[in-house]
Design a protein that fits this description.
Chain B: This is Tripartite tricarboxylate transporter TctB family protein. The structure holds three protein chains of three kinds. Chain A is an alpha/beta fold. Chain A has eleven helices and eleven strands. In chain C, a hairpin with a 6-residue loop joins β1 and β2. Classes of the chains: A alpha/beta, B mainly alpha, C mainly alpha.
Chain lengths: 330, 172, 504
């Protein structure tokens, strides 16, 4: 009986305690993408370090759907108390121009932007070109012949292709797949010739010689691909968009108490410096950012500007970026 | 039981209406499929839905015609043999449960659901029903929420706070 | 010698042995509970085993995978709620057996056949992994499309009395499968502007509604009828039975391995294809299919467990997941600092035989845990209906919610439960609906990819079918099955072509 009373007393206190001393209960992490995807892998590998830093459980839940919009909406419908985190990838930054949702990361508080990926162009080993220039020449000489894989409008492949199309006029067949994995499998089987993909997804297959890199979409060479010159060597005009790449980040709803935000930011910051996590990300070809606050906002805004305007110029945006006051990239 | 029903050579009450409804729904879906991309190309996003819904329209028409040919079953009433009151009541209870689960939370709504259904279908003493409901709810909660970390709708019960209190209390 | 050493790693360490056993045991329950998927359980285990040694973590996860695939048959047989889509075909003949009081025998038989299937998968993985994986990636979009069409033709097997009703149900399923944002063009299909519909209608929600809820609603008609007493004297199947069905089990296991090894298809499609194979090749079943034919139970159970070994083939050799669960395994290997990919077996040669040994061990535990505890499980069906039916509803609702932590899945489950109730009432088969949902995106997307590849030309599409041996074989089997199933063949072509063989 005493115990019950104690429990009830504790319960009645808990609501006030929760505010004073974050975190007083489990924190829920909502992952935008499904189990086994790269966002899921990254978040599940950082979570244990965050749990240590926060001293509470971090329960991860996958809530897929609507290119991540379902999870984004869900977190924004919850209380702004710091107990529900959105763990996502770059997709929400395109929601507004693609007309998928009315919110993006600029309407939330960034806890940490963990890392950024580098896009590469990979090709089937039998493809008759070995570098960027040869690829461009071959595609021009054989219009409508080269089969390029993609992952749907607004996906990484569509934006990389929009970048290329802003520099040269290419005529190819675009074949959409449901993600990097299936597309790379199809590439090895010869169903497609070329696929723009994030380096991490293709690194192991490249090392094993099952596919070849024909372009590195970056301004600088990459340590993991010592013999591949950056794409700006062939197309200097690309430099205005780069460096650009998909990223992973953790966000909370606007209005979350300062105290909780600071605690979460420091927890994720220290978690992202743990050697396990760093080596995992580097091996997968991701560049660790580990940024929050103003730095994160700058990064997020630059990503949004570049991608939104590219998509707009390529002609598949639903609304003009101007409508949302998204500035043109310099 | 479904096997004895499906080997029918007679028409049950409501069957004609059901088949007619299927035709109507199929035509509506065909129209919706047409709206996606029209008859633009073989590789358009609307091609496959068009083919599927066209098949539905054809098949439902064949089924409807076949049904018309069957003689009506004798001595079967819709609300006694096809949709008896107990089925409608249970359907309504499930519907209600699905409506309130988000706002009331899993624990409260499921408890009421179990208690009402078992009492209605099993008709023993309320105490017995209460015990069964509580025990099964605890088992389901432990499996889903605690072991597999499915975060069930919390509603008005501050579950996470209670768990946090119990754990901190346990560790002290 | 090295191989044997690595193979035995998990057998000789009591810790690894215990973890595999624990994993298998948990897996059987995860598999049995609809809505709790093996994919989900394995991803939870990633966080849980984060700080563990990689071997320990893998033992536990492999156990869960093997046990989970098997476990789906439990609730399919006992309650007509398949624990996972790969157990749908099991419910078709398993549940009728339970209604006859033969649940114990059905579970026993399905256990033994699952284990046989599991072993076939493991043997193919151990002996032919590189060959099979190279074969698997040569599948072009048109080949996947034709596999989808082959699958859709199973509607004929699942239709029961009225083919027209079956075709309607199948087409409805295909249509349900297209709901949502089209993954290829991002166009909305049948979403009516609702964001929650963008990701489509989850097949598991449809499955729980159509099978579990609609059956439980029908059970309400017979509340006064006494429950069927289960005969539990015979659990371990007769040796003669096992011998008799062994050829079928082996054939369907091979179907399972290949379908499992293809990166675009998994155990659910394997099980359905196996069911169809059993129905086509069994000339005179003792009991008709759909009413408790043992062949209809054996085929899918062998195939879906064989698909486990199959799914590992592209994963271990190329780093390409064979199904959703192996995709999570790849994530787990990454987190533990390994590099799953084509180089995995070069960098970590012990991984291959360790995994084979582990799968073998887990498969043995499936046999042990599968055959014990059947008595207790069979008792579930003997529980008074007034208690059992509300519990089925509760489990269905929680299961539907657990798929994606979304209340909307409860709504779908309920809607399909009520619709399924009327479908059953008026003699429509519900199996083809689920079949359609599962095969929809496979067929739709690959059809379109194939046509895009040919720049929209149907002529080139057919021309290319005959330049590839694989495509030609698939195409011919579609024609063969189609004509052997329709009366055109039996009444028209067969007497014409084989006139000499008929008696004068």
């Amino acid at each position: 009986m005493k115990k019950t009373i104690a429990l009830l007393a504790a319960l009645s206190l808990s609501s006030t305690v929760a505010l004073a001393d974050y975190p007083s209960k489990d924190v829920q992490g909502i992952i935008q993408w499904g189990a086994g995807g790269s966002t899921d892998t990254v978040m599940r590998s950082i979570a244990p370090h965050v749990e240590d830093a926060l001293g509470t459980d971090l329960i991860l839940t996958n809530r897929t759907g609507g290119v991540g919009a379902i999870a984004t909406k869900y977190v924004n419908a919850k209380k702004a108390d710091g107990y529900t985190l959105l763990m996502g990838a770059e997709n929400p930054q395109m929601y507004k121009v693609l007309g998928l949702a009315k919110i993006d990361y600029s309407d939330m508080i960034a806890i940490n932007v963990l890392a950024r990926g580098t896009p590469v162009l990979v090709a089937n080993n039998d493809a008759p070109f070995n570098n960027m220039q040869e690829f461009l020449d071959y595609t021009k000489a054989n219009p409508g012949k080269v089969k390029l894989g993609s992952t749907g409008k607004g996906g990484l492949a569509s934006i990389v292709l929009a970048m290329l199309n802003s520099q040269v006029d290419l005529n190819y067949i675009s074949i959409p797949y449901n993600g990097d994995g299936p597309a790379l499998t199809a590439l090895q089987g010869g169903a497609i010739d070329v696929m723009p993909v994030v380096l991490g997804a293709s690194l192991e297959s490249i090392k094993a010689g099952r596919m070849k890199v024909i372009g590195l979409i970056d301004k600088e060479a990459n340590d993991l691909l010592p013999n591949v010159p950056p794409a700006t060597d062939t197309l200097p005009g690309l430099a205005r968009y780069l460096p650009w790449g998909p990223f992973f980040g953790v966000f909370v709803k606007k209005g979350t108490p300062e105290d909780a935000v600071i605690k979460l930011q420091s927890a994720f910051h220290s978690a992202a410096t743990s050697p396990d996590f760093v080596s995992l990300m580097e091996k997968r070809g991701f560049t660790i950012l580990n940024i929050a606050g103003e730095k994160a906002d700058t990064f997020l805004n630059s990503y949004r500007s570049t991608s939104s305007w590219l998509v707009d110029e390529a002609g598949f945006s639903k609304y003009s970026p101007e409508k949302f006051g998204i500035p043109k990239p310099q | 039981m479904s096997s004895q029903l499906s080997s029918q050579k007679v028409r049950k009450p409501g069957e004609r209406i059901f088949c007619l409804l299927l035709i109507v729904v199929s035509i509506f879906l065909f129209w919706q499929a047409y709206q996606i991309a029209g008859f633009s190309s073989l590789s358009s996003s609307g091609a496959f839905p068009l083919a599927a819904s066209a098949t539905m329209v054809l098949a439902s028409c064949v089924v409807f015609v076949n049904t018309l040919k069957l003689p009506a079953a004798e001595g079967i009433q819709f609300f006694r043999h096809c949709l008896p009151p107990v089925v409608s009541i249970i359907m309504a209870i499930i519907l209600l449960y699905a409506v309130v689960i988000d706002s009331l939370g899993f624990i409260l709504s499921s408890f009421v659901f179990l208690f009402v259904c078992i009492q209605l279908l099993y008709r023993r003493s309320p105490l017995f029903t209460l015990a069964i409901s509580i025990v099964s709810l605890i088992v389901v909660y432990i499996i889903f929420r605690l072991v597999f970390q499915v975060v069930l709708p919390e509603g008005i019960v501050p579950e996470r706070e209670i768990i946090a209190q119990i754990t901190s209390w346990w560790s002290n | 010698m090295d191989a044997l050493h690595f193979f035995a790693t998990s057998w000789l360490s009591p810790e690894l042995l215990g973890l595999t056993a624990l994993g298998t045991f948990l897996g059987i329950y995860v598999g049995a509970i609809p809505g709790l998927s093996v994919t989900m359980a394995v991803s939870i285990l990633i966080s849980f085993t984060f700080s563990w040694d990689v071997n320990n973590a893998l033992c536990l996860m492999v156990g869960v995978y093997m046990g989970g695939v098997y476990g789906g048959s439990r609730t399919a047989i006992l309650l007509n709620i398949p624990g996972a889509p790969s157990a749908i075909a099991t419910a078709m003949d398993g549940y009728p057996l339970a209604k006859k009081g033969l649940a114990g025998e059905a579970i026993g038989l399905s256990t033994v056949m699952s284990v046989i299937g599991g072993f076939v998968g493991i043997i193919v993985l151990a002996l032919a992994a590189p060959t099979v994986s190279e074969f698997a990636i040569t599948f072009q979009p048109r080949d996947y499309m034709m596999l989808g069409v082959l699958g859709i033709m199973l509607v004929g097997s699942l239709s029961g009395n009225s083919l027209a009703k079956g075709i309607f149900a199948g087409a409805l399923g295909l249509l349900i499968g297209t709901v949502g944002l089209d993954p290829m063009s991002a166009e909305e299909r049948f979403t009516f502007g609702v964001v929650e519909l963008w990701d489509g209608i989850n097949p598991v929600a449809v499955m729980i509604g159509m099978f579990g809820v609609s059956e439980a609603l029908h059970q309400l008609h017979h509340m006064d009828k006494a429950v069927v007493k289960q005969k539990i004297s015979r659990i371990i199947p007769k040796l003669s039975d096992v011998k008799k069905y062994l050829p079928l089990s082996l054939q369907t296991s091979f179907i399972g391995v290949i379908i499992g090894a293809l990166p675009g298809t998994g155990g659910d499609i394997a099980a359905l294809m196996a069911y169809d194979h059993a129905k086509r090749t069994t000339k005179n079943p003792k009991v008709p299919f759909g009413e408790g034919a043992k062949e209809g139970l054996i085929a899918p159970e062998s195939a879906n467990n064989a698909a486990v070994g199959g799914a590992y083939i592209p994963m271990l050799t190329l780093g390409i997941p064979g199904d959703a669960v192996t995709a999570v395994f790849i994530g787990a290997l990454f987190i533990h600092g390994l590099n799953p990919g084509p180089m995995l077996l070069v960098e970590q040669p012990q991984m291959f035989w360790f995994t084979v040994g582990n799968l073998t061990l887990a498969n043995i535990f499936v046999l042990i845990f599968g055959l014990t505890g059947i008595r207790l499980f069979s008792k579930i069906v003997e529980c008074p209906k007034g208690i059992l039916i509300p519990l089925i509803f509760l489990l269905s609702i929680v299961g539907a919610y657990a798929i994606n932590n979304a209340v909307i899945d409860i709504w779908w489950m309920f809607a399909f439960g009520v619709f399924g109730y009327f479908m059953r009432l008026y003699g429509f088969p519900v199996g083809p609906v689920i079949l359609g949902v599962i095969l929809s995106s496979l067929t739709d997307e690959n059809w379109r990819r194939a046509i895009l590849t040919e720049s929209g030309s149907l002529g080139n599409f057919f021309a290319h079918i005959f330049t590839s041996p694989l495509s030609s074989v698939l195409f011919l089997s579609i024609l063969l099955i189609f004509f052997s199933k329709t009366s055109l063949w039996n009444k028209g072509l067969k007497p014409l072509l084989f006139r000499t063989k008929q008696k004068p």
